[in-house]
Write a structure and sequence with these properties.
The structure is a single chain. The protein has about 220 residues and is α/β, with parallel strands linked by helices. It folds into two domains: about 100 residues, Rossmann fold; about 100 residues, Rossmann fold, CATH 3.40.50. The chain contains eight helices and eight strands. Strands 2-1-3-4 form a four-stranded parallel beta sheet, sandwiched between helices. The chain has a four-stranded parallel beta sheet with strand order 6-5-7-8, with helices on both faces. Helix 2 runs parallel beside helix 3, helix 4 crosses helix 8 and helix 6 crosses helix 7. The chain is globular, with a radius of gyration of 16 Å. The mean pLDDT is about 95.
Protein backbone atom coordinates (compact mmCIF):
# COMPACT_ATOMS: atom_id res chain seq x y z
CA UNK A 1 0.00 0.00 0.00
CA UNK A 2 1.45 3.35 -1.07
CA UNK A 3 -0.10 6.50 0.33
CA UNK A 4 -0.61 9.51 -1.91
CA UNK A 5 0.19 11.71 1.08
CA UNK A 6 2.28 11.43 4.22
CA UNK A 7 -0.06 13.77 6.10
CA UNK A 8 -1.60 12.05 9.13
CA UNK A 9 -5.21 11.19 9.81
CA UNK A 10 -5.93 13.08 13.04
CA UNK A 11 -8.56 11.48 15.28
CA UNK A 12 -9.79 14.06 17.78
CA UNK A 13 -11.28 13.12 21.14
CA UNK A 14 -13.17 16.32 22.05
CA UNK A 15 -13.43 15.37 25.71
CA UNK A 16 -10.65 15.56 28.28
CA UNK A 17 -10.46 11.88 29.24
CA UNK A 18 -7.17 10.53 27.93
CA UNK A 19 -8.28 6.94 28.56
CA UNK A 20 -10.86 7.43 25.80
CA UNK A 21 -8.08 8.61 23.49
CA UNK A 22 -6.11 5.48 24.33
CA UNK A 23 -9.14 3.39 23.36
CA UNK A 24 -9.38 5.31 20.08
CA UNK A 25 -5.76 4.49 19.34
CA UNK A 26 -6.41 0.79 20.01
CA UNK A 27 -9.38 0.91 17.63
CA UNK A 28 -7.15 2.55 15.01
CA UNK A 29 -4.44 -0.11 15.22
CA UNK A 30 -5.73 -2.37 12.39
CA UNK A 31 -5.43 0.61 10.02
CA UNK A 32 -1.78 1.32 10.83
CA UNK A 33 -0.06 -0.34 7.88
CA UNK A 34 3.28 0.14 6.13
CA UNK A 35 2.97 2.79 3.45
CA UNK A 36 -0.40 4.04 4.71
CA UNK A 37 -0.96 7.46 6.28
CA UNK A 38 -0.18 7.57 9.98
CA UNK A 39 -3.04 7.88 12.46
CA UNK A 40 -2.69 10.28 15.37
CA UNK A 41 -5.16 10.41 18.25
CA UNK A 42 -5.37 13.63 20.28
CA UNK A 43 -7.23 14.80 23.39
CA UNK A 44 -8.76 18.20 24.10
CA UNK A 45 -7.46 18.65 27.62
CA UNK A 46 -9.75 21.61 28.28
CA UNK A 47 -12.91 19.74 27.26
CA UNK A 48 -15.48 18.13 29.57
CA UNK A 49 -15.02 14.47 30.64
CA UNK A 50 -17.78 13.53 28.20
CA UNK A 51 -19.85 15.29 25.53
CA UNK A 52 -23.26 14.79 27.11
CA UNK A 53 -25.15 18.11 27.02
CA UNK A 54 -25.98 20.69 24.36
CA UNK A 55 -23.55 23.08 26.04
CA UNK A 56 -20.80 20.47 25.81
CA UNK A 57 -21.56 19.99 22.11
CA UNK A 58 -21.39 23.68 21.24
CA UNK A 59 -18.25 24.30 23.29
CA UNK A 60 -16.56 21.28 21.70
CA UNK A 61 -17.63 22.47 18.25
CA UNK A 62 -15.69 25.70 18.63
CA UNK A 63 -12.61 23.87 19.91
CA UNK A 64 -12.69 21.36 17.07
CA UNK A 65 -13.21 24.03 14.41
CA UNK A 66 -10.32 26.09 15.73
CA UNK A 67 -8.08 23.04 15.95
CA UNK A 68 -8.83 22.03 12.36
CA UNK A 69 -8.17 25.57 11.15
CA UNK A 70 -4.80 25.75 12.92
CA UNK A 71 -3.54 22.21 12.32
CA UNK A 72 -1.95 22.63 8.89
CA UNK A 73 -0.14 19.30 8.55
CA UNK A 74 -3.19 16.99 8.73
CA UNK A 75 -4.40 14.95 5.78
CA UNK A 76 -7.85 14.39 7.31
CA UNK A 77 -9.68 14.98 10.57
CA UNK A 78 -12.08 12.71 12.43
CA UNK A 79 -14.33 14.05 15.18
CA UNK A 80 -14.49 11.04 17.49
CA UNK A 81 -17.73 11.93 19.23
CA UNK A 82 -21.05 10.52 18.10
CA UNK A 83 -22.73 13.93 18.38
CA UNK A 84 -20.16 15.22 15.86
CA UNK A 85 -19.50 18.64 17.45
CA UNK A 86 -17.98 21.08 14.99
CA UNK A 87 -17.82 18.87 11.91
CA UNK A 88 -19.60 21.42 9.70
CA UNK A 89 -17.58 24.27 11.20
CA UNK A 90 -14.30 22.44 10.64
CA UNK A 91 -15.23 21.70 7.03
CA UNK A 92 -15.68 25.43 6.48
CA UNK A 93 -12.24 26.21 7.93
CA UNK A 94 -9.99 23.61 6.31
CA UNK A 95 -9.53 22.17 2.84
CA UNK A 96 -8.83 18.60 4.00
CA UNK A 97 -11.59 16.01 4.55
CA UNK A 98 -13.41 16.09 7.89
CA UNK A 99 -15.36 13.03 9.00
CA UNK A 100 -17.85 12.55 11.83
CA UNK A 101 -18.26 9.15 13.40
CA UNK A 102 -22.06 9.16 13.38
CA UNK A 103 -22.07 9.70 9.61
CA UNK A 104 -19.51 6.95 9.13
CA UNK A 105 -21.10 4.46 11.52
CA UNK A 106 -24.58 4.83 10.08
CA UNK A 107 -23.35 4.52 6.50
CA UNK A 108 -21.42 1.37 7.43
CA UNK A 109 -24.52 -0.10 9.09
CA UNK A 110 -26.68 0.66 6.06
CA UNK A 111 -24.15 -1.19 3.92
CA UNK A 112 -24.69 -4.29 6.08
CA UNK A 113 -28.42 -4.33 6.86
CA UNK A 114 -31.79 -2.92 5.86
CA UNK A 115 -32.47 -1.58 9.35
CA UNK A 116 -30.00 -0.64 12.05
CA UNK A 117 -30.02 0.17 15.75
CA UNK A 118 -27.88 2.44 17.91
CA UNK A 119 -26.69 2.05 21.49
CA UNK A 120 -26.43 5.46 23.19
CA UNK A 121 -24.41 6.08 26.32
CA UNK A 122 -27.14 8.34 27.77
CA UNK A 123 -30.80 9.06 27.08
CA UNK A 124 -30.13 12.78 26.72
CA UNK A 125 -27.96 12.21 23.66
CA UNK A 126 -30.67 10.48 21.63
CA UNK A 127 -32.56 13.60 20.46
CA UNK A 128 -29.32 15.00 18.97
CA UNK A 129 -28.63 11.73 17.22
CA UNK A 130 -32.15 11.57 15.79
CA UNK A 131 -31.91 15.13 14.48
CA UNK A 132 -28.82 14.16 12.56
CA UNK A 133 -30.45 11.03 11.15
CA UNK A 134 -33.26 13.22 9.84
CA UNK A 135 -30.65 15.47 8.27
CA UNK A 136 -29.04 12.43 6.64
CA UNK A 137 -32.45 11.30 5.39
CA UNK A 138 -32.14 7.82 6.89
CA UNK A 139 -34.34 7.98 10.00
CA UNK A 140 -36.79 5.56 8.38
CA UNK A 141 -34.04 2.91 8.38
CA UNK A 142 -33.58 3.15 12.17
CA UNK A 143 -35.12 0.25 14.06
CA UNK A 144 -34.49 1.93 17.43
CA UNK A 145 -31.93 3.77 19.50
CA UNK A 146 -31.56 2.54 23.08
CA UNK A 147 -29.63 4.18 25.91
CA UNK A 148 -27.72 2.21 28.52
CA UNK A 149 -30.00 1.40 31.45
CA UNK A 150 -27.61 2.75 34.09
CA UNK A 151 -25.39 5.85 34.20
CA UNK A 152 -21.85 5.18 33.04
CA UNK A 153 -18.98 7.37 31.89
CA UNK A 154 -17.75 7.49 28.32
CA UNK A 155 -14.44 5.95 29.41
CA UNK A 156 -16.17 3.09 31.25
CA UNK A 157 -18.55 2.29 28.38
CA UNK A 158 -16.00 0.15 26.56
CA UNK A 159 -14.33 -1.74 29.38
CA UNK A 160 -15.34 -4.04 32.19
CA UNK A 161 -18.08 -6.59 32.68
CA UNK A 162 -20.62 -4.11 34.03
CA UNK A 163 -20.61 -1.97 30.91
CA UNK A 164 -20.57 -5.06 28.69
CA UNK A 165 -23.71 -6.32 30.42
CA UNK A 166 -25.39 -2.96 29.86
CA UNK A 167 -24.45 -2.96 26.18
CA UNK A 168 -25.65 -6.55 25.82
CA UNK A 169 -29.00 -5.62 27.33
CA UNK A 170 -29.37 -2.65 24.97
CA UNK A 171 -28.24 -4.74 22.02
CA UNK A 172 -30.82 -7.42 22.77
CA UNK A 173 -33.53 -4.74 22.75
CA UNK A 174 -32.33 -3.58 19.34
CA UNK A 175 -32.40 -7.11 17.96
CA UNK A 176 -35.95 -7.46 19.26
CA UNK A 177 -36.83 -4.17 17.52
CA UNK A 178 -35.64 -5.58 14.20
CA UNK A 179 -32.14 -4.18 13.84
CA UNK A 180 -29.93 -6.12 11.43
CA UNK A 181 -26.80 -4.19 12.43
CA UNK A 182 -25.89 -2.18 15.52
CA UNK A 183 -23.89 1.02 15.71
CA UNK A 184 -22.03 1.83 18.91
CA UNK A 185 -23.28 5.33 19.68
CA UNK A 186 -20.25 6.43 21.67
CA UNK A 187 -16.55 6.43 20.79
CA UNK A 188 -15.71 4.92 24.16
CA UNK A 189 -17.61 1.68 23.50
CA UNK A 190 -15.21 0.22 20.93
CA UNK A 191 -13.58 -2.21 23.35
CA UNK A 192 -16.78 -4.28 23.50
CA UNK A 193 -17.45 -4.48 19.75
CA UNK A 194 -16.19 -7.99 19.09
CA UNK A 195 -17.86 -9.62 22.11
CA UNK A 196 -21.15 -7.91 21.33
CA UNK A 197 -21.07 -9.09 17.73
CA UNK A 198 -20.30 -12.65 18.81
CA UNK A 199 -23.05 -12.74 21.44
CA UNK A 200 -25.74 -10.98 19.42
CA UNK A 201 -24.97 -12.71 16.14
CA UNK A 202 -25.11 -9.64 13.90
CA UNK A 203 -22.72 -6.92 12.71
CA UNK A 204 -21.67 -4.39 15.34
CA UNK A 205 -20.18 -1.22 13.89
CA UNK A 206 -17.45 0.73 15.66
CA UNK A 207 -18.06 4.20 14.20
CA UNK A 208 -14.49 5.29 14.90
CA UNK A 209 -13.17 2.46 12.75
CA UNK A 210 -15.78 3.25 10.10
CA UNK A 211 -14.59 6.87 9.99
CA UNK A 212 -10.94 5.87 9.83
CA UNK A 213 -11.77 3.58 6.92
CA UNK A 214 -13.40 6.46 5.05
CA UNK A 215 -10.50 8.80 5.78
CA UNK A 216 -7.95 6.23 4.71
CA UNK A 217 -9.84 5.52 1.50
CA UNK A 218 -10.03 9.24 0.77
CA UNK A 219 -6.30 9.78 1.22
CA UNK A 220 -5.36 6.68 -0.79
CA UNK A 221 -7.57 7.49 -3.77
CA UNK A 222 -7.60 11.29 -4.05
CA UNK A 223 -4.85 12.80 -6.23
Amino acid sequence: MIARTTAPIVVVNPNSDATVTTALSVAAEPFRMPGAPSIECVTFDDGPPGILTELHVHEAALRFGQYAAERRDAGAFICACYSQPGVDLARSLTTVPVFGIQDAGVLAALARADRFGVIAVAQGSIPRHLRHLRRMGVEHRLAAEVALAEPISVAESGRGERSLALLMRAGAELVEAGAGAIVLGCAGMSGHKDRLAAELGLPVIDPVQAAIGLALSSLLTTP
